[in-house]
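In this supplementary section we document a worked example of the pipeline. Step one takes a protein sequence of length 540 as its only input; no multiple sequence alignment statistics are reported here. Step two produces a three-dimensional model, which step three serialises into structure tokens for compact storage. The input and output of this example are shown verbatim.
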Amino acid sequence: MQMAGDIFPTDWSPPPVEFLNPKALQTQWVGAAGPQGRRRPPKELEQKPLDLDSKQGMTSLEDLFWNMASPSQQAGTLEKHSHALDTSGHSEHYVNSLDYLLQEKRILVEKFSVSLKVIPPVHPGETVFLPRRHPLPCILDSLHLKPHSHLEELFLSSRPDQQLCFLHNGLLNNLYLHASDCSVPLLQWLFQLLTWPPETSSKAFGLLWDLSMDGLFCQSDEDMHLWCPSLEEVTKVFHSLGAPNSDLCSLEPLQLSGRMLENKISLSCQEQEDSPQEVVLDISLSYIYKFLTLCVLMRPGSYTDQSLLQLIELLCRAGLDVELRLLPKTDLQQLLLLLLESICEWPGKLQPLCNALSWVSNHHHNLLALVQFFPNVTSRGRQLRSQLSLVIITRMLGQQDILFLWQEKTQLSLLSQLLSLMRPSSLRQYLVSELLPPFQKQQHKASAELDHKVCYLCHSLLTLAGVVVSSQDITPDQWGELQLLCMQLDRHINTHIRESPQAMHRTKLKDLATQIYIRWQELLAHCQPQAQYFSPWKST
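The serialised model returned by step three reads:
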């Protein structure tokens, strides 16, 4: 019993759950039209009375709660029921099965996932130099050389592997350094040895450099002579590094005597490459670039204009090698600028040079990296960067037949016309029509892969457009053209890029467009416009 002053009851039995009793539910839902004035139950309860001990009763109870739910909750519950029936095939399985939970987790991950497809910061590169396990043999042509000492006679008559020992031990320095003259076959042999592993190439470069400098300082100005490798010899060196024979010049196979052929295997197996392939290649190319720089600097007329153009193209192809993408290219850039300054007919050679360089690669990012090989520090370097960027843009957009492409004063107006073709929707249509076969155009038109290619191409084209403007000396009469460029950039690029967490490449593209827009606005602020452009704050 419970006393009057007790706060808590002594009977701790749970209260009766009346709503789970079928009879109580029937009594509750009897209608007012009944004989005793009670409310009648709904049709669902009249047809199938609830039975908690059976699965049919559970289903009816779920139907009851489903009728009381909101329309959105009803749609979600209906989807779960249909999924449970489809996956299991039996209605008695629970909705929250493991298969359904796993599918729900995949849907959630896809909804909030970030795409791994980004615009790479480094160009893909080209396979220019194939890896070589052993270096090609370099044979000293000593048939027409006359020895001046017993030691030199011993060197010239030795086997090729023994001649390398003379080089490694420093005996060749005693023989030819500070001599009256140095034979050209010896210099050619040392130049070919620049393609060998660092242990040999470093010795060969040191002796080749010392002999060249010694000849410059020891001889008078009238008799000064410096040996410079021909274009054919430079191509042969690149072939020794692993590049296939170029179309620049046809190389005749080297005639080897029987004694030389016997030593071919021993020469190729003498040195093993301990360093990575890209490091060995970079060291050899650095030696070649430095020696060519010395030759062009000390003998400005050693190469014709046509040879200079072909040499620039050959060097640019080598610089795009896939193994050299992450390595600095200071020696190459310095040599390229020097070769540009050595061209005699510069205005007339700019167009064929840009046309040749624009076909060095078929990938837009590789061509952008090629433009960056030429630093923006000289007048000719800026002209080449600007004109080459325009040529690449027109090629990537299929607009090579523009008439005033080579007119320097119309570059900004031409670029404003090309910006409308750089719109992502226009690039999408162009890529679909050019790259895909007809039966695949519709299914790839809205694919994520195509969207990534469009943004990637647009990113390279916008970077090239920035190079065109930055290479110009903006004058007051170009103020209006630059202002039009800003309007076109905002109209055709910025407003057509829709950012999404699932497409981070769009965000990077929009960031680039914004940076270029700000840079062009800064140029407008520092350039005083002409009086023909109306300024409200100057109106009287």
